[in-house]
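Quick entry between incubations.
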Amino acid sequence: MVGGGLGSQIGVAHRVAACMDGLFEFSAGAVDIDPAKGHADGIDLGLPKDRTYGTWREMLHAEMQRSDRLDLVTVATPNATHFEIVRAFLDSGFNVLCEKPFTLDVAEAEELVRLAREKESVCGVNFGFSGYPMVRQAKAMANAGELGRVRVVVMEFAHGFHARSDDADNPRIRWRYDPKQAGQSAVLADAGIHALHMGGYIIGQSVAEVSADFASCVQGRLLEDDAALQIRFSDGTIGRLWTSAIAVGQMHGLTIRIFGEKGGLRWRQEEPNQIIWSPLGESSRTLERGASGLHPIAAGGSRIPIGHPEGMLEAFANIYSDLHAAVAAARAGERTGATEDFPGFSAGLEMVRVVQAATASSKNRGQWTPV
Amino acid sequence: MVGGGLGSQIGVAHRVAACMDGLFEFSAGAVDIDPAKGHADGIDLGLPKDRTYGTWREMLHAEMQRSDRLDLVTVATPNATHFEIVRAFLDSGFNVLCEKPFTLDVAEAEELVRLAREKESVCGVNFGFSGYPMVRQAKAMANAGELGRVRVVVMEFAHGFHARSDDADNPRIRWRYDPKQAGQSAVLADAGIHALHMGGYIIGQSVAEVSADFASCVQGRLLEDDAALQIRFSDGTIGRLWTSAIAVGQMHGLTIRIFGEKGGLRWRQEEPNQIIWSPLGESSRTLERGASGLHPIAAGGSRIPIGHPEGMLEAFANIYSDLHAAVAAARAGERTGATEDFPGFSAGLEMVRVVQAATASSKNRGQWTPV
Amino acid sequence: MVGGGLGSQIGVAHRVAACMDGLFEFSAGAVDIDPAKGHADGIDLGLPKDRTYGTWREMLHAEMQRSDRLDLVTVATPNATHFEIVRAFLDSGFNVLCEKPFTLDVAEAEELVRLAREKESVCGVNFGFSGYPMVRQAKAMANAGELGRVRVVVMEFAHGFHARSDDADNPRIRWRYDPKQAGQSAVLADAGIHALHMGGYIIGQSVAEVSADFASCVQGRLLEDDAALQIRFSDGTIGRLWTSAIAVGQMHGLTIRIFGEKGGLRWRQEEPNQIIWSPLGESSRTLERGASGLHPIAAGGSRIPIGHPEGMLEAFANIYSDLHAAVAAARAGERTGATEDFPGFSAGLEMVRVVQAATASSKNRGQWTPV
Amino acid sequence: MVGGGLGSQIGVAHRVAACMDGLFEFSAGAVDIDPAKGHADGIDLGLPKDRTYGTWREMLHAEMQRSDRLDLVTVATPNATHFEIVRAFLDSGFNVLCEKPFTLDVAEAEELVRLAREKESVCGVNFGFSGYPMVRQAKAMANAGELGRVRVVVMEFAHGFHARSDDADNPRIRWRYDPKQAGQSAVLADAGIHALHMGGYIIGQSVAEVSADFASCVQGRLLEDDAALQIRFSDGTIGRLWTSAIAVGQMHGLTIRIFGEKGGLRWRQEEPNQIIWSPLGESSRTLERGASGLHPIAAGGSRIPIGHPEGMLEAFANIYSDLHAAVAAARAGERTGATEDFPGFSAGLEMVRVVQAATASSKNRGQWTPV
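Done. Structure below.
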C-alpha cells in the first residue's frame, strides 16, 4: 500500500477490506509522505521491517526485485500524486488499485488506461460502493431486463460535513476547495462521482453528456460545495444527480433510484442490505441481502446470514475479492476484461471526463457538454 | 363550488377541508360540466335545490342576487377554464379560491392578479400542502433566522402513476400530456410546482431564474413526464427540483430539504407530522406536531394531540381557516395583504411564470431563463 | 354531545369526525360539567341557543320532546360518569356512542349491553383507531384466510407523556393514577385497551384469558403506568401486549403485528396509510391505502387518493359513517348486529372485563385469569 | 477454532471478526466433527497442515506442546458439546471464547465459571451484539447516569425463519425444537438471550426474577418457538422481552428500548449505527456512530467515518479486540476482571440460569421464578 498510514481514514478501510476474506495479506507499504512516520506507522501496522518503506520509489525498487513481490499495490495517496505513482508501478508490471478520483485530468487518466492495457495488468479504481451485494443485485436485475428499458436514474451523495462558515479557514478542509491542490472540482470529484459511477454501473451505460450547475455556498471557496448534474447516458437514459458537502444533517447521502418501464428500484447506503423494488402496478417489496432468489452475484458477495447487517467494509472486501480473482486469472494466463465486476481504470477515466465536462458546463451556464 | 362533483378527487378534499372547522358550509355549487349531472350531484352532496346550479354562469347570476351570497367560491374545474370563471366571479365581487395551476399562461394570471387587487377580494390558489402545520413551522423557523442564511433548497414531488407504456393511449391520462388540453407543461405544472411553491413559501423568497431539463419518457407524449429544474431564488438561494410521473414506487413524493448556515431541515409528506431538524454541529432531532415549543403558527394549525397523525385534509382545512379569517377581516374593513398565511393569486402567478420560463429553458437546452 | 367542550381534546375530534362526511351535524350538546361554561362553549361551537344545554339531564328531557331529536348522542365525559349518562339516554331510546373506557366495572357494562339489546339501539364504544382503512384491510385479510391460522398477535401502545417524576403532583395527570377517580387501572384502561381491542378486532377473536404484570414506575402512583399482558384469545391465538405512559420518546406507540401460518402483517399508527405484508417465504411488501386490489372495506373508507396521508380524524369519521349507516338501517326497520364494522357495546364490555381480569392477575403475581 | 468449518454460518463470522484488526490470526483448528472434512476444510481455510486437526482432543494435545500455542481458542461447536470442550481447554490453561448458549444446564456453567476463575484464564461467551459501538454508547450513557434511574427495558429478538408448518419435518430445523439435542429451550436460548443479555449489559444489572410464557406455534414442536418474559433486574428495573422464530417478515428483530427517569433510548440492529435518544421533555435526537461527543468506548470501537455503515462483523471484531487486550494484560501479569467490556463466562452462566428459570416459570403457568 502506498499512503493510508495511521490517521488516514481510507487506509484502515483498505487494510480491513483487503484482508477480510483471507485472500490478501498486508505485506509491504510506504504509508506516509514523511519517511520517518511511514516507517513507524508501517511497523505499528504489523509490516515486516524490511518491507516498510520510506517512499513509494524505494518500495517500487525493492519490491521489483523480490520473488514474492506484491500481487496488488493499493494507491491511497493525495489525488494529485495518483498519476505518477500508478504509472510507475504499472510500468514495472504491478497490478494496481487506485483511490478515486483517478487523476486530476483526462490526459493523465487516458495514459494510465493505455498503459494498463499494454501491460495487461489488473487495474481498479476504488468506486468501492459498487461492492455492496444489493447494488450488484440491482445491476443484475437491470441487466436481466427485469426493469425494462431504464428511463430515469436519480442519484445523490450529499453530506453536511463542510458546512461551517469558518471551514474556509480550516486547513483540513480548505485544501479540498483549492484548485491548486484539489483540481477543478471539489464535491463532485470527491463524493458525487461515487453516486454517478454507481448509477452507470447498475444500468450498464456510460455518461454521454452533462449539464451542470455548481455552487460555492461557503464564502471564500473557489470550488463547488454543492452541484447538480443533468445527464444523458449512452443509451438515452436520463440521469439526475445532486451532490453536496453543505447539506447539514445528511449522513448517509448515497442513494440511487432507478425507474424503468417495468418498475422502480431504490437503494440507500443507510440501509445497504435492502433494495426496495416496485414492480409496475404492484406493491413495493423489500429485497433482503441473504434472501433466496437473488441473483448469484448478490448471493455470492454475502458473508453473514439474512437479517444481520453488513456494511461498507464488506462492500470494499468484495472489490478486493474480485481483484483477487482477476489477479489469479491473469496469472493463470486467462484474459480478463469487460466481464469483470469491479470498476477498472476505464471507469476511473470516465469519471475524470465527467468532472471535466461538468466543470466546463457549469462555467458555460449549464450548456450541455459531451463527456 | 364550481366543479368538483361526484367522481372528482379534489372536490371531496375541498368540501371536507372547508367544513372541517365549522367555519364554512357547502352552500351552493355548479359541480359538473354537464348540467344534469351537476344538478344530481349537488343534490346528492346535500345542496339545497335552489342553490344547485347547472352552470357556473347560472350560479354567478343567482348568487349575486342573494343577500346570503357565498363568502367564498372554490373553483375546481379543468385548468383551461380557471381564467374565465375566476375572472367572472371576481368581477362580481366574490372571494375566490382557485385550484392550481392557476391559469394556462402568464397574461391571464396577471390579469387575475390585477383584478383581485382592484376588487380587494380575498383570493387564494390551492397550494394546499402549505397548510401542513410542520411546513409552517419550517417557514417560521426560517423567518426567525433559526436556519441562518439559506443556501440550498432541495425539492421533489415524484410519483409513478403515469408510468405505463400504454398510458399514452389511456384517455384519462392522455389529456394531461396533450398541449391543447394541458397547456405547455404536464408534470411540472401538475405536481412539481407544489414542491417549488412550498420551497419558496418556507424560505420567503420568489423564483428569479431557472434552468430546466424536461423529458418525455413514455413514447408518444408531447409534454414532459419527468423534469429537473435548477433555480436561483430572489435572494440568491439555490434550488434543486425533481418532479416525475414515471417514478414507479414513489408514493409520497413531496419532500423539502432546506440547508442553511445554521442547520438543515427536512419535511416529507409521507411523515407530515414531523420535521427533522439538524442544527449545525449537533445531532439531528425530530420536531413533532403538537409538541411544546413550536412557533405559534404551527401550534395553531393542529387539531389533535401529539402522537396521533393529521393528514392532507387537515392541511387543506388550515388554508380554508386562513381564508375565513381573511374574509372576516375584509368584511370588517381591515386591509389584508402581505402577511397572509395562505398562498394568494400572486403565488399562482409566480408559478405560472416558472412553468413558462422552465418550458422555454428546456427548449433552449437548459439556458438560464428569468422568471 | 355530552362533554367535549372547549379545552377537551377528544371533543374536537368527535365534532370533526362526525361532520366530516356530511352525514351528521353537531346539533345539540351539554358540553361541560359547569352549566355556564357549557352554555357558552356550546354557543361558541355553533350550537343553536335552544339546544345548548347546561346539564345532560336537561338535554335528555328537552331532546326527548323534539321531533327532530338527536340521531346519535356522543358521550365524552369523564369515565366515571359514562354509566349513568349512557343508561339514561338508552332508556329514552337514543342511539349512543360512548368514549372508552366504557364503564368502570363489569356489572355496569353488562347492564348497558343488556339495555342496548332490549332497546335495539345503535350503540358504539369509541375504539376509534379501528376506523383506519388499513386496519380494516388487515381485518379483511385475516377474515379471508390470507394469513392462515393466526398464531401470535403482538400489540403495543406506549407513550412517554406521564414520565416526569413530579407528575405525581401534577393535578392534570395525578387523577389518572388515583383509583378513586380512574378506577382500577390507569394506562391499560386508558391506552392499552385500544391496542388490545384492535388485535381482537383484526383477528375476529375475543380475549379468553390473561396474565398481567403491572408496574408503577413513578413514585407515589397507586395505579400502573407500565403493563405487560400475555393473552390467549378465544380460538387459541397468543397475544402479547405492552403498554406504557413512561416510555419517553415514544410518540406513535400504537402498533399491531399479526403472525399467521401464511404470513406476517404490521400496522403502525405512525404510518397509518400502509400495511407491511410479508407472505411466508416471499419478500415483504407495502400495501398502500388507496391502491387497487384492497378489500372493499378498506377501499370504501378512503377519502383522498393514494400517496397523500389520511390521519386519525379520518379514521374516527369512518366510525361515524358506520354508525350513520346503522342508524339509517335501524330506522328503516332492518336488523343490524354482528356484522357491523364499528365497535359496539359488547366490545366495550369485553375490554372492561379484560381490565378487571388483568388487574386481578397482576395482584396475583401474574396468575392466568379468565376474562 | 473448534467447529465452524465450511458451511457453518458462525464460523465465517468468527474468522473475519478475529482477524479484522490484525490482532489475531487464524492459526489452528479442528473445524468439523468429521475428521476428514475438518482436515480438508482447515486446509481450504488456509491453516497450515500441521495445525489442521481431525478432532478437538488431537488439537488440544498438539497445541499444548507448542511454544507458539494458541492465544485464544474459539469454540463454535453444537451447544451440547460446549461444556466438555471448554473444560478441557481451560484445564490445560487456554483462553477460551465460547459460542452461546454457554452450556445446556446451570451445573455445567457453574463449573466452567469456577474453573475459569481458578485458572485465571481470559474467558468470553459470544454475546457478540454487545460489541456494536452504539450499544456501548448506550451502556456508557446509562452508566454515567444520563438516563437517570432506569425504569423499564423493552427487548425483542424476533424472526420468522422457522415459521413453515412443515418445518417440523425439516431436519435442519427440527433438531432445534428437540429437547434431546437442544436442551430445555429453543428460541429463548437461541435468540432471546441475546436481547436479554444486551438489556442487562447496557443497564449494568443482572436478572433477578422472571415470569415466562412459552408457546409452540408450529404443530409437532416440543420446545417453544415464541416466548414472552417479564423480568425484574437486580436493582428493580422492569424488563419485557419478546422473542420469536415464527414472526414472518421480521428480519432485524434485535431491538432494545430503555426508559429512564431522564429519557428514553432506542437501538435496533437494523440501524446499528444510530441511537435514538429522547431526553425527557425535549425532542428526540439521532446519535450517530462516529460523531463527536460520544463516550470513549463508542468512539474507540469505530473503524470507518460517520455516515458509512458498519455491521455485525465489526461488532464481533470489537469483542475480539477486547479479548486481545485482556490476553495481553493477563500475559503482562495484570489482573483483569469486572471492568472488562466483553461478556465473560459469568454472563454465559447468568443466561443459562435465565433459560432454566423461564422454562420452569412457563411450566408453572407464569409463576415468578428467581434466577
